[in-house]
Specification:
There is one protein chain. By secondary structure, the protein is α+β, with helices and mostly antiparallel strands. It is built from one helix and nine strands; from the N terminus they run H-E-E-E-E-E-E-E-E-E. The chain has one helix spanning 2-19, and strands spanning 28-31, 39-43, 57-61, 70-72, 80-84, 98-102, 109-112, 121-124, 138-141. It has a three-stranded antiparallel β-sheet, with no helix packed on it. It is globular, with a radius of gyration of 17 Å. It starts with a helix and ends in a 6-residue tail after the last strand.
């Protein structure tokens, strides 16, 4: 009986912790014009690209659990689950850029440089000041807690 109670409490604690993560894509926004008020944000920058990337952010609504994302413009981050973010038509060093999530993250991202991925929730990652084809680039994932 005691073991059953511990297992049930453990399951409730886990589901409550997962419920505190922001819903993908509902609680996320992309900004190419700086951090968004009322959101926590992660800077997404390729310093080798001269086209305005220093103020681009992936943001999630404030008040939700920090998803623990990290951005790398220098390759994958060991111990994290990383998704390549590359626009092959942009000649400015995007081949080694990654959005990384903790290995136990509920988010499993895919990146598309050719439009939304059917069946997934997607957020447009566009920098209008960059002339190299970013207008159809999307960060996508299975819907998490309410697409």
């Amino acid at each position: 009986m005691l073991i059953s109670v511990i297992i049930i409490l453990s399951a409730l604690t886990l589901s409550q912790a997962e419920a505190n993560y922001p819903y993908w894509p509902k609680h996320f926004r992309w900004s190419y014009a700086g951090a968004i008020p009322g959101y926590d944000c992660l800077l997404v920058n390729e310093p080798g690209d001269p086209h305005y990337w220093a103020n681009n952010y992936l943001c999630w609504e404030t008040g939700w659990k920090n998803p623990g994302f990290r951005w790398s413009y220098g390759g994958v981050i060991p111990g994290m689950r990383c998704t390549a973010v590359n626009e092959p038509g942009d000649p400015h060093y995007w081949g080694n850029n990654y959005l990384c999530a903790p290995s136990d993250s509920p988010y499993d991202f895919s990146f598309s440089h050719a439009g939304k991925i059917q069946g997934k929730g997607c957020v447009l990652m566009n920098e209008p000041g960059d002339p190299h084809y970013w207008e159809n680039n999307y960060l996508c994932a299975e819907c998490y807690c309410g697409c």
